[in-house]
């Protein structure tokens, strides 16, 4: 009962900070950094697709707290901002599993006091002791998914089954396909196609992947994580490398858009909630995590934002049509060859060198 009493106590304390008529502000996505030290507000740094007015209004109603967000489109962008001292105003950040490990190595995270959490045991067992953060000492899983290919099934007669489809059909796909703006995902997918690990530490293998990508690059419209979506809906693109959550959203907007996890394997990733080392609003951060851990809230995030919840109690609240959505919750057979991307120490520089050559040439 201690953690529940602590949770209620913090909620009550936060309620006293309410600003009359302030409402919810997270939907007003900011384009510049907040001023440090505003402890009566909660600042978060998140992926652009993890915001929603209606859901966030519920948190405001519970706490009376004004919340503002900055968004990013890659872990590298987020990490760079923190490394140059721009992260001291955020109390919640949403790094992927690989970024959690890097942030731990750089001593950027606050260890989470589990006595202040309510509902951590709602998570599936595999998310309660992840390899990248044993026993969730520094992170709480928020969302999980895979990486794959989304394509226009009306315009592509043959559906892609593996990564090699891009090379085999590069003339048809010429300037009508995009790859993620993520060096480990793009080089990793090519490594996997060649029969190697996403996390190869063999420079000969990495160079082989680079050479394959160099041959494909003239046909690639862009290395892009978000902007491809409108282009695909408009018919300007035929195919895009993307995250499963984005694929779910797009396929619901246009059922002709199909998603596939490549046969040779892909990535399995988890986005997390963490509290940075210099978080200015610790009570607000714990209140935010506890709010997300509520099964009803987590289920609503899945329904409204098309993201896969790691929360077992939340999954059980979802409509059958969502529980059976294989884009969101793929079968075990599709996940068997998926890997988590992990930090590679000195080999990060090798990947970065080849990525720079690829994207700057």
Structural description of this entry:
The protein has helices spanning 2-15, 53-63, 75-83, 97-105, 125-128, 165-168, 183-193, 203-216, 228-234, 244-253, 282-293, 295-305, 312-315, 320-323, 332-335, 347-360; strands at residues 41-47, 66-72, 92-93, 140-152, 177-179, 222-223, 239-243, 257-260, 268-273. With 361 residues, the protein is an alpha/beta fold. Strands 4, 5, 6, 7, 8 and 9 form a six-stranded mixed beta sheet that branches. It has a three-stranded parallel beta sheet with strand order 2-1-3. Strand 1, helix 2 (53-63) and strand 2 (66-72) form a beta-alpha-beta unit. Helix 7 packs across helix 8 (203-216). The chain is globular, with a radius of gyration of 21 Å. Residues 1-38 have low confidence and may be disordered.
What features would you highlight for this structure?
disordered N terminus; 6-stranded mixed β-sheet; single chain; 9 strands
**Percentage of residues in helical conformation:** 25-40%
Chain-averaged pLDDT: 88
How would you spell out the order of helices and strands? HEHEHEHHEHEHHEHEHEEHHHHHH
Quickly count the helices.
16
Query: Tell me, what's the shape?
Result: globular
User: Separation of termini?
Assistant: 59 Å
Summarize the structure.
The chain has 16 helices and nine strands. The protein is an alpha/beta fold and 361 residues long. β1, α2 and β2 form a beta-alpha-beta unit.
């Amino acid at each position: 009962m201690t953690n529940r009493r602590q949770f209620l106590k913090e909620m009550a304390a936060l309620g006293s900070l309410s600003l009359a008529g302030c409402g919810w502000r997270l939907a007003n996505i900011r384009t510049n950094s907040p001023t440090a030290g505003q402890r009566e507000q909660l600042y978060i740094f998140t992926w652009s697709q993890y915001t929603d007015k209606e859901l966030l209004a519920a948190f405001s109603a519970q706490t009376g707290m004004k919340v503002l967000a900055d968004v990013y489109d890659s872990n590298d962008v987020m990490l760079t901002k923190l490394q140059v001292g721009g992260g001291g105003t955020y109390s919640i950040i949403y790094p992927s599993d690989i970024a959690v490990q890097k942030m731990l190595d750089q001593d950027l995270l606050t260890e989470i006091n589990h006595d202040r959490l309510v509902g951590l045991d709602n998570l599936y067992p595999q998310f309660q002791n992840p390899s990248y953060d044993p026993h969730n000492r520094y992170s709480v899983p928020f969302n999980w998914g895979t990486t794959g290919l989304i394509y226009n099934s009306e315009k592509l007669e043959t559906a892609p089954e593996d990564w090699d489809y891009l090379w085999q059909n590069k003339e048809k796909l010429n300037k009508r396909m995009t790859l993620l703006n993520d060096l480990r995902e793009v080089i990793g997918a090519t490594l996997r196609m060649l029969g190697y690990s996403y996390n190869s530490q063999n420079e000969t293998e990495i160079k082989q992947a680079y050479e394959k990508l160099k041959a494909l690059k003239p046909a690639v419209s862009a290395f892009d994580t978000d902007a491809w979506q409108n282009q695909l809906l408009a018919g300007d693109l035929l195919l895009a490398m993307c995250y499963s959550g984005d694929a779910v959203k797009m396929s619901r907007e246009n059922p002709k858009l199909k998603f596939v996890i490549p046969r040779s394997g892909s990535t399995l990733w988890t986005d997390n909630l963490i509290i940075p080392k210099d978080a200015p609003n610790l009570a607000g951060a714990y209140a935010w995590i506890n709010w997300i851990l509520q099964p009803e809230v987590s289920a609503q995030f899945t329904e409204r934002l098309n993201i896969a919840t790691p929360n077992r109690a939340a999954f059980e609240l979802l409509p059958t049509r969502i529980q059976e959505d294989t884009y969101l919750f793929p079968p075990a057979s599709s996940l068997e060859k998926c890997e988590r991307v992990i930090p590679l120490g000195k080999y990060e520089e090798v990947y970065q060198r080849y990525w720079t050559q690829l994207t700057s040439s």
